[in-house]
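[step 3/7] inverse_fold.run input=structure_tokens len=146
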């Protein structure tokens, strides 16, 4: 089976001997894709729930009620004047999440750019699949000659 392969095969596939390491071109190294940030970076719902629960528990208590001695001030009832201070943690988390998103690759690309790339890649995949199918099918000339 050292005969010529299909015309679409690379020269190394048409050779009767196995290609050597120096004759085979090296593939360019793929750029490292940065890891996605953990989901907790974007999860502010528990923090908001805690602040709102503290605020609601304040409205349910009679005026002038103080937190119990075993209760920390961070878990105790929250007065309306303290909401801004309590929300600082949430604001900082949102700023961090915004910076993280803006640091992601290709964040500035439009939807049209992304759709164009998707179409290009789908076309490329279809061509590669067709080439693989053509290589998998036996040549008709060799079958007719037998």
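[step 3/7] decode complete -> sequence:
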């Amino acid at each position: 089976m050292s005969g010529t392969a299909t015309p679409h095969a690379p020269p190394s596939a048409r050779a009767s001997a196995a290609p050597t390491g120096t004759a085979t071109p090296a593939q360019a190294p793929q750029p490292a894709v940065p890891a996605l940030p953990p989901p907790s970076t974007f999860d502010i719902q528990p923090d908001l729930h805690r602040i709102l629960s503290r605020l609601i528990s304040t409205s349910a208590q009679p005026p002038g009620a103080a937190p119990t001695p075993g209760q920390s001030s961070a878990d105790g009832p929250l007065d309306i004047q303290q909401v801004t201070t309590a929300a600082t943690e949430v604001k900082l988390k949102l700023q961090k999440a915004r910076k993280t998103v803006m640091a992601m690759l290709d964040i500035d690309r439009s939807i049209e750019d992304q759709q164009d790339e998707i179409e290009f890649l789908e076309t490329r995949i279809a061509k590669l699949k067709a080439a693989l199918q053509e290589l998998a099918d036996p040549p008709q000339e060799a079958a007719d000659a037998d």
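[step 4/7] annotate
Helices lie at 11-14, 45-60, 83-86, 88-102, 111-136, 140-145.
The CA atoms of residues 51 and 83 lie 8 Å apart.
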